Amino acid sequence: MSAERFDCHYCKDSLLGKKYIMKEDTQYCTKCYENLFANCCEGCSSPIGCNSKDLSYKDRHWHEQCFKCAKCSRSLVEKAFATKDDLLMCTECYANDYSSKCSTCKKTIMPGSRKMEYKGHSWHETCFLCHRCQQPIGTKSFIPKDTGYFCVACFEKCSTCKKTIMPGGVTYQEKPWHRECFLCISCRKQLSGQRFTSRENYPYCLECFSNLYAKKCVGCTKPITSLAGAKYISFEERQWHSECFTCMQCSVSLVGRGFLTQRDNILCTDCGREK
């Protein structure tokens, strides 16, 4: 009785004492297996034989020695890599050629790292900061304002009471206030809807600013301020409201007229000659 045959399923050559490969419960000699089933290497276009390691990525296959960066030829085996136009590249080469630069730190944003993108600009996730509190915004909501970006908490919190501001607040020097919280630093009068000015970054109503910083009229001793559009006369380091610049004796207006001085007094030319 002859021994049972053990042949290659495809070429029928005997496999007794030879290396063979099983596929779906069917045996093949190595030559037939490679011809029938071996993947073609993307790098060298040769079949990936039974004695070679087959590395695959997205239904594409490489010999282990062919799995390398298309630019610098360094091996990518067990290393991070990126793809561009079906080419494999190490992260360094990809970053140098294609990665965007962080708008804050100006360094390359490496492939695979978390990043933020907005209107053509890119940031490392840890570099995208709130303009006010300087904390990373990350993937949370934010509000763009002028050249900065604000987290919702900072943008909507009143600079005085720190409570949330509903629509209709006041913004001054890039800081938000409730209308009722935006007050003159001196008299605490509400400034919303009123004309105001500032000194050393503090807001003042016009009245307080005039009382504190404006020159005083020689005639009535009240402040002279150009903020309210008042016209005034200046002479020898003294100032008068236009309506106060009158003859000391007859009270005629001296605006646009010649005048004389008598000690600290001003007189029209007629009263001056009488003296």
From TrEMBL:
Q: Tell me if Zinc is a UniProt keyword of this record.
A: yes
Note the InterPro entries from the entry.
LIM_FHL1/2/3/5_N (IPR056807), Znf_LIM (IPR001781)
- One Pfam family from the UniProt entry? LIM
Q: Which UniProt keywords apply?
A: LIM domain, Metal-binding, Nucleus, Repeat, Zinc, Zinc-finger
PROSITE patterns in the record: LIM_DOMAIN_1 (PS00478), LIM_DOMAIN_2 (PS50023)
Domain LIM zinc-binding: start-end pairs = 39-100, 156-215, 216-275
Q: Where in the cell is it found?
A: Nucleus
Output the Gene Ontology terms for molecular function.
Answer: transcription coregulator activity; zinc ion binding
Q: Please give an example of a GO cellular component term from this record.
A: Z disc
Q: Which SUPFAM superfamilies match?
A: Glucocorticoid receptor-like (DNA-binding domain)
Main localization of the protein described in the UniProt heading:
nucleus
Name by which UniProt lists this protein: LIM zinc-binding domain-containing protein
This protein's species is Periophthalmus magnuspinnatus
User: What lineage does UniProt assign to this protein's organism?
Assistant: Eukaryota, Metazoa, Chordata, Craniata, Vertebrata
